[in-house]
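User: structure tokens for this one?
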Amino acid sequence: MVSSPQKTIVVGILLCGLVWIRPSVAEEIGGTMAPDRTNKKTDIYAGVYVLGSSPKNKNLVVGGDEIPQTTVGSGMGAGIKAGLYPSFTNRVVGIEAEIFGHGGDVTAPRTTVSGGTRFANANLITFNTMANLVMRYPGEILQPYIGAGWGLSSGFLTDIDIQRGTDRLTGTGSTTTVAYQFLGGLRANLTKNVFLFGEYRYFAAKYRWDSEGSGPDTKLDFRTQYITGGVGLSF
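Assistant:
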């Protein structure tokens, strides 16, 4: 079940992107297929997309102690991006910037270890701002590409209920950290200005939520795979 904060992020990003892109798509959708792009000096583009996440399970670490059997749940999200392939790279190497986010959860069953009872239950929302270096094959219709990116990732824990022995953590927490990703995708040009695209990504960030007062810190080594799909405009 997707929580209310997660729905707000997904719907907000989608609406911003769709409001911006809708008029141009309507004008271009009746254009000719597979137009000639050889006269373009620089390929500038923007797009909006949805994504699904499939995280790798990593144990929460509270005050240096792991919470056994932590499960990081999958989730849905959305994003927007813009970039360019300049003429001096023959429109083969480009750069892009993007913003995307998604929701999920972090849970662990109640267990008893030497340090006492441990369990975890919280909602996890991520919001990421990335800059990517991409390289593509500049085909006329199909353009496969690969890339790597670096940026900042904000992780929000809400509805926290985490126990480590005598420590009980509740409420909400937020943190921002450095993140990186690797990606591969395929762009399909529909008209002179409209294209579809899909991507696979591997994304990583290490979150650390500082506790207020003298309570223990909470850490999560976040790793996930993304599958994305969207529509864009080339200018």
